[in-house]
Each structure stands twice: as structure tokens, then as C-alpha cells.
Amino acid sequence: MYDFAILGGAFNPIHNGHIYIAEQIIQHKLAKEVIFIPNGNHPLKSTSLLLPYSERLALIDKAIEDYSNFSVSELDSPTYGINYTFHLIKRIKEEYADKKFTFIIGYDNAVNFSKWYQYEWLLNNVSFTVVTRNDSQRDKEDIDQRFNMLEIIPYDISSTEVRQKLQTGQDVSTLVPKNILNQLLDYWKKLRLLSHQ
User: Fold this and answer.
1) String of DSSP letters for 70-130
2) Is the pTM of this model over 0.85?
3) Which backbone phi and psi does 129 adopt, to 5 degrees?
4) 126 CB contacts (<8 Å, ≥6 apart)?
5) Which pLDDT does position 107 carry in this prediction?
6) Is residue 103 a contact partner of residue 126, using CB atoms and an 8 Å limit?
7) Are 12 and 110 in contact (CB under 8 A)?
8) Is 197's pLDDT higher than 50?
9) What is the per-residue pLDDT across 3-52, written as a single tens digit (0 to 9) for each?
10) Alpha-carbon distance 142 to 114, whole Å?
11) Percent of all residues in the chain with a pLDDT value above 70, rounded to a whole number
12) How far apart are CA 175 and CA 171, in angstroms?
């Protein structure tokens, strides 16, 4: 069992699917703790309708407040500039030098891993765990054999779906943690107003 698992991403916004994956990590005894690390400035992500970092961080903090095994880190905050996973890992290794951890990625990221900056160094120096559906017929030979696998029952929600529903005024109360719903709606309303100025 790892000391902790890293769950990174834009979290634009955090949703029930993220919480579910973190819960599965704990239940499958992959790690003792899950640390959420939101991107500050991701080199491959569009900033279109991206909630400010401080607001994405606040939503994560609120969403996980009742989970003793979850925490949030600012090791990928905008203060570090635009950087890659390689740079984030260096900071994690420095911050948690005596801890054993695994970095969680999705199947699609695993298939395209050779496009990542310094991917060979990452594969040789970091434990990566690929979250995949346990009913999937995907060919495991498509991904590097150095990856660990965590096969779970699918929970099909994406941040894109949440944003699309927010854009069209649809209900998202079943997609995001209930304790962040009002805060998310307030942030989104402000973002839309700012984006139309």
C-alpha cells in the first residue's frame, strides 16, 4: 500500500466522479490517503471557461471536508508558472521525500503517455496507476507494462458534462457534491459575467 495517491487535474470543477475514484483508491487499499492537486497553468489545457485557480481549490477543499483520508495540495499552483507533470513530480518528491506514492491517470492518458514531457524519466522514477473500467475489453497491451492498474466499476461523469449543463442552465445537483453546489453556481455565474465583458 502506498502512503498516498496523487489525483491531479484541472478540477474544472470537481465532481462526484473525482470523489468516487478517490474513495475507490482507499477501498481497494491502493493508498492510505488521496491528495488532490489542481493544475495552476497546464501547458496543454485551454483556459476557456476555466474557473480561477483559487475557486477550483476552494471547491475541492469544501468537497472533501468530511473525508479524513483526502487532502488538497497547492504544489501545482499558478505561482510555479506553466509546467509539466515532470516538474510537479520533482516538487512532490522534494516535499514528501520519505513517502511512497502513486500518481493516478486515466486510460486515455496512459495510451498517449509517450507524448508527455520527459515520459521515459517519469516511467522510470514514478509509480503510475491507471484507472480503468472493470468491464472494459480494452487491450492492456496498448499501454506500457510499467503502469499499475486499478479496475473499478465505471462512474461516467466528466467536468465537460458539468460545464455544458452549467452553460445551458441545467441542473447539476446530482453531478457534484451537494455541499459545493451553491458555491459552484455563484462562481460560475461570476465567470460567465466576466467572460462576456
Assistant:
1) EEE--TT-GGG-B--HHHHHHHHHHHTTT--EEEEEEHHHHHTGGGSTTHHHHHHH-EEEE
2) yes
3) -120, 125
4) 89, 103
5) 87
6) yes
7) no
8) no
9) 999 999 999 999 999 999 999 999 999 999 999 999 987 665 555 678 99
10) 12
11) 89
12) 9
> What Rg value do the Cα atoms of the chain yield, rounded?
17
**Whole-number Å distance between alpha carbons of 68 and 120:** 34
Query: Which amino acid, residue 110?
Result: A
CA atoms of 127 and 148, how far apart (whole Å):
7
**Which CA distances in Å does 175 have to 30, 68, 116, 122, 157?**
25, 22, 30, 33, 7
In this structure, the number of other CB atoms found within 10 A of the CB of residue 173 comes to 9
- pLDDT, position 47: 54
Name the one residue in this structure whose C-alpha cell is 465537460. 160
Q: What count of Cα atoms within 13 Å lies in the side-chain half-sphere of residue 16?
A: 15
Give the separation between CA 190 and CA 177, rounded to whole angstroms: 20
Residue type, position 67, single letter:
Y
- Which residues does residue 4 pair with via DSSP β-bridges, in sequence order? 101
**Between the CA of residue 24 and those of 43, 64, 129, 151, 154, what are the distances in Å?**
29, 14, 13, 9, 11
